[in-house]
Amino acid sequence: MRKLLLILASAILLVALSLRAYFAVIPPPEPTLHKTLAEILPDKLPGWSIEEFDMAESPESSARISQFLNFDDAIFRVYQYGNSFVGLYIAHWTPGKASYRWAGAHTPDTGWLLNGWKRLDRQYAIPFEGNGRMFSNAEFGIYEKDGSAQNVYFWHLVGGKPFGYKQKGVPNIFGALLDIKTYGLKLRQEQFFIRLPSNQSIAELRKLPGFSEILDGLAEIGLAQDPPTETNTL
Q1: Position with higher pLDDT, 135 vs 233
Q2: Is 68 helix (H, G, I), strand (E, B) or coil?
Q3: Into how many domains does the chain fold?
Q4: Mean pLDDT value across residues 52-64
């Protein structure tokens, strides 16, 4: 048994050293984001009030965790129109900055629930449309705290494609190996984590003037998969 463990440990060490050598020789890909998130997302909308927050004030974060996540850029805004609000939380990592599993770990399914929220509904990889175009499939959940519920759409993009949540909240000790199986040696791709919560449904949000501009900003950072058409549906 000890011999088998020694062989296994040696094999893991050899793989780790090989990957380190490979990454030292092969440079990561160039990032696609060439403007700040604050420049891309609207900071003025007629009839809306817009408030900026520190990332550490988000339900899934804290000052310690935000610092540890080591974002290259991030934004946390709340857009208010009458009694309706839309939150916008986006974190960006340049290629090779963070592991896929760690960057995607601060979801409402982890951070929100640990901070006293209750999950009422959860759907995986559902279609999302807006401004006449298809966006990447979204994760969706309804979360409640202190009698107030929010409809939350969120995405973790890896190399422009949604990172799957097939384990559905159950930690997988072989996560890193599954990433290698899925991505091969493409383990240093650009990443975005995007969260869009609201006290309204998407059907109600699409009726609000200016909401389309928020979606345009999300499309610009790579969330939309198709060019816009003449239709305007969500």
Answers
A1: 135
A2: helix
A3: 1
A4: 71
- The reply to whether 82 falls in a domain is yes
Provide the 10 A C-beta neighbour count for residue 154: 20
Q: What residue numbers bound the domain in which 144 lies?
A: 32-220
- Answer whether residue 182 is part of any domain: yes
User: Is residue 125, in this structure, part of any structural domain at all?
Assistant: yes
Beta pairing partners, 148: 145
Q: Report the alpha-carbon distance of residue 80 to residue 83 in Å, rounded.
A: 7
Contacts of 40 (CB under 8 A, 6+ apart): 217, 220, 221
CB atoms under 10 Å from CB of 218, counted, come to 23
Q: Tell if the pTM clears 0.70, that is, is over it.
A: yes
Q: Is residue 12 part of a domain?
A: no
Token couple for 111: 């951070």
Report whether 132 contacts 206 (CB < 8 A): no
For 39, list phi and psi in degrees, rounded to 5: -75, -30
